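Changelog-adjacent note: as of this version, every example in the card shows the full chain rather than a window. The one below runs 313 residues end to end.
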Amino acid sequence: MYLKQSFRRKLIAAGLALIALPLSAMAAQNDGSAAKPLRVILVPADGGTEDGTKKDFQPIFSAIEQSTGLKFDIKVGQSYGSVVEAMCNGAADIAWYGPLSYLQAKERGCSELLALAVRKGQSVYYSGVFARTDAGIDGLADLKGKKVALGDVNSTSSFAVPVAMMMAGGVEPARDLASINMAGSHANVLKALAEGLVDAGGASFDSFEKAVNGNAIDPSKVKVIAKSAPIPYPPLAIHPKVEGDVKAKLRDAFNNIDKLPGITKEQIRGYGGGKVDGYTANVSEEDMAAAGKMFELVTDQVKQDIMKKASAR
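Full-length structure tokens:
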């Protein structure tokens, strides 16, 4: 009798443990079939519009769909944080992040590297701090007392790296800047700069180039006051629970994206909508982790202080 009761208690305990697990821990990821397309979510690097970030990646996924038979459902997240949450609660199978957002998801066990864009043999990009030429700013130290725009708090190159460069240059943003405009995206940072709402802003060079090419900003009125060390390109990542054969198909397709039917070299785009030569699935978790050292100065307390400053009237 004791053994039966003990066994029953164990079954009940096991059942309660299963109930306590998050739904994402129990649910299987989608398999790329027509009934369960792979759910792709992209960070809103260009404001999150359907004509922005999604347009940059649609030809790539369409070519992979044509080549492999895998189906995709592509969406743009409302924020960087929402993309991390979508992956970590099982609502997405593939994500495109900045390196900082990727590392946040990786730490939570819900992302592994899938592919990086390749341009001129490299998979790196750069962040910068840009200033209006009429703002009297020649270096990072001159930002003291100035109005500065930053992107999403979880963005690598419109927040974490610009803030880290400021701090390394002796500027404590929450203490030394006149005001901080949390613009939410690279495009919005550059728009605020172009319209004279701020004196300086942090954004990626890819987004700056896109804004210049789209006549959204006049390069004669803006100058670079700081450029970062190379940063690994924002990665495409996949949920660890996606089936192994699906991962293999995807990695092979990304390695050969420039050779797949249904896509031209002009349509192979990467971060900021810039043309890239292709993608590689031969990616290094160690390199991505090393990139995290670039913004070690940007602690949670630093973020909180900046957000508090930004909300002050």
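Structural remarks: The two ends are 70 Å apart (CA to CA).
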